[in-house]
Write a structure and sequence with these properties.
Layout lengths: L12 H14 L4 E6 L15 E5 L6 E5 L3 E8 L2 E8 L3 E6 L5 E4 L6 H4 L3 H6 L4 E2 L4 H6 L26
Amino acid sequence: MRYESTMSETSTKPYLLRAIYEWCTDNGYTPYLAVMVDENTRVPREFVKNGEIVLNISFTATSGLKMENDFISFAARFGGVAREISVPVDNVVAIYARENGQGMAFEVTPRTADEKTAEPEESAARSPGLAPVPSSSEQRDKTSEDKPDDEPEPPKKGGRPTLTRIK
């Protein structure tokens, strides 16, 4: 007899976010979230650039961090003012370590009004895909002859790390 579940399958994304967060904190790194901002995202709008915001979600920068399956929420100070932050997991573009840029990026597509009211099975079929983020050692191992022209340059030493989206 075959058992069929009537519940839709839970996305792996919130579990991967929690795992990368734990990896960052275990290794002494500062976990950052890159988030696509829309009407469901509660963040200080004055810090949003090009429809995105980058948030420091380290233990020292947040209070009451909750990384649930649907939302990530916490309190944090922006310009000395305490703010309540709430981010839908679906809007997370990436989670990475500030110090070395290692982490995971996610493909996020803006949702239309029809998609916001879609049935759970339909939205599960449209869940965002994952894209690997190469480690800095993998990027350093490549020579300039091996790189196609459209591949981004490896991170430079001494400066502030940047997140590179791979599509």
